[in-house]
Structure formats: structure tokens, C-alpha cells
Amino acid sequence: MCLDLLNSLFITHKETHLYHRYIYTKDIEPLLVKLGSNFKIDVIGKSVNDENIYSVTIGSGKKKVFMWSQMHGNESTTTKAVFDLLNTLSVENIYSDAILKACTIRIIPILNPDGAKAYTRLNANEIDLNRDAQDLSQPESRVLRECFNDFKPDFCFNLHGQRTIFSAGKSNHPATVSFLAPAQDEACSITPNRKKAMEIISVMNANLQDQIPNMVGIYDDAFNLNCVGDTFQSFNIPTILFEAGHYHNDYEREKVRAYVFQSLLVSLNYIAQNEVSGDFYKEYLKIPQNEKLFFDIIIRNAKIEAQEELVDVAIQYQEQLINDKIEFIPKVENIIAPLQFFAHKEINAKGETVLNSEYKPLVIGSEIDFIYINDIKLSLKLTFS
Question: The Peptidase M14 domain covers which part of the protein (predicted)?
């Protein structure tokens, strides 16, 4: 696909009413209303707290693609990309025309409305819906399964977000976008339907490598039948896990949103234009596996009171919902010498003493908005335009 056209479509059809990280049902309902008559909007169930769970269906083709986002309520990047995609499909262009003629697409934009509103991974009963695929103990899990059974998809897209801790392989490259063709058995066998998922991922990866080389990873494929992707894969439906990760200084996940949008459009176009056989799966096997090698900030070569040698201080942002906004609170995660990890931001203390806002030594587990190095105040807070 033409990269210039992909970028142009994103700029033109980006849903500007969705921004940053906090997105829940109230935000998407007006957008569903404004979708055209060729979109079928349904309330397919209710959450624990009686919030509507919606689905959007578009297209008239025989190839059925089923996708769902915000199974984990605090993973909203893919929801933004879904609405960018819907806007793109709502107008005539060379991609939307081909996709809608060949495919029928059904999307659940927010599967976990209560978790989305509370900005938490879990639902209102504090259950991880992505560990409930066998028990189906939660109403949201049952809604997803009933929608799957009713729609009878040929492909499934399981849309998620991942933390800033992940690298693409054992490298100083963040995992900006990650994928997975989930396992369907304990042996993680490369089955025919997994090959089909791998083939599609290979196509998306090829597009991304032209823009973010070495920043695409493969998520852990350890088999767990309680996970939805593993369960649907075990039903012999090619299933793809999408993980929206981190790009440099993109804590709002706006840059990553564009890469997820491109990946959705590229994959749908590939499905529309080809009979996915699985024959071209081997490029998938070259994508590096994710590693947990990043912190948000590392203060290198720091002198901490009571420590005889210089240390590295690892700081990770804690996402907290405060007054309907997501705040990133810096927290000291580790103090060790030396720290064999990478950081999205590094500060070199050059052997000077590092103190907190009260001029006291840093302590693991403490939250700190700024530090002092040699009496120079440095803020650790994120700022957004």
C-alpha cells in the first residue's frame, strides 16, 4: 500500500474528538450516532454496571472480520484507531471500496465500559476479561462470545495496548507496535490458521518497518486457554493480537494511534485482495519477541546517601485518573548499580547527590515530581501541548 496515501487518509479522517488516553462510552456514543446509514449500530449487551456495549457492522463481502477494543478498560489507543478506520471506511477511496465489497466487518469499540470509565484493566467485578474466556463468568465475556458465535468470523482482531516497559527484542528499541498469532495448544504448534494470522502480521510488519524500523515486536505466545485469543484460535479461526505500545515521547499515544490505524487498514486490504493461505507466514518468525527492558526514566551515576558506590535510579510513570484526566505520576521503582536496562529518558547525575523535593534521599516506592542534583531542580513530570 502507498505510504503517502495511508498518511493522507489518517490525517484526513482522524477522529479529533478522541484524544489522549481517557476514553469511555460517553466519548464514543456521539460518534456512533454520526456514522452513516451504511453502518449498522447495535446494543449487543450490558456491562456489570448496566452500561451499553455497542457493535458496529459495515460491508457486504463474504470475508468476515471481527474485532474488539478496550477489553482492558485502560487500553484506549486501539479504540481511537478504530474510529479513524470507521471514518475512512465511511467515504469512497480505493481502499474502502475494495474492503467493503470483499469483507463484512463487525467491531465492538469498547467491550469493557466500566473498566474504561474507571480507567482500569479489570471490569467492575475486578475480573480480567482476557482471563475469562473459558469460565465466561462476566456479562462482557458472554457478550463477546455471543457476538463471535452469531457473526461466525473468518478472522479475529483482538485489540490491546501495552506498557512502556517493552522492547522489541533484546535491544534499545521500544516495542511501538506488537502483534501475536496466539497459540492454540500447549506445544504452540504452527497450525494452518496460525499461519494465516502470521501471514497477515507479516504484511503489517513490512509496512511498519519502513517507518519504525526495529520497533515492532511479537508478544509472548505462551498458551493460556483462558485468554480470548488462544480460545478463538483453538476454534480454528485465525486470530491476531494487536498491542499498541510506546513511541518516543508519545505518552498520549497519538503517534502510535496512526501506526495502529495503518495496520488495521493494511490488514483489511490484504484480506480483501487476497486469499490468505498461510503460505507466506515465515517472515513473521523473524520479528523479535518482546522483552521487558525499559523504564520511563533512569538517573545514571547517582550518589544516594548511605550507598557507597554510584547507582542508577529507575523511575516508572504510574497512570492515575484524576479529575477525568490521566496523570502520569513518577515513582521510584529500583535503585541499583549498575542497572542493565534502557530508558525512554536518561539523566546523568555525573556522581552528584540526588535528592527528592524535600532534600531527602530517594527511596524505592516513593512518588516524586522532581529531583535536585547539585541544587539544580529537575522536573520528572510529563507535559502535554
Answer: 18-271
Nearest to 3 by CA among 208, 179, 205, 273: 208
pLDDT of residue 384: 85
E strand or H helix at 44: strand 40-46
Give me the residues paired with residue 330 across strands: 317
Known active-site residue 243: yes
List beta partners, residue 347: 299
CA distance 210 to 153: 31
Q: Which of 75, 199, 243, 333 is catalytic?
A: 243
d(CA 299, CA 302): 7
CATH of 3-292, picked from 3.40.630.10, 3.90.70.10, 3.40.50.300, 3.30.750.24, is 3.40.630.10
> pTM of the predicted model, to two decimals?
0.97
CATH topology for 294-379 is: Urease, subunit C; domain 1 (2.30.40)
Tell me the three state secondary structure of residue 3. Answer: helix
**Average pLDDT, integer, range 299-328:** 93
Q: Residue 281's closest CA among 188, 196, 208, 351?
A: 196
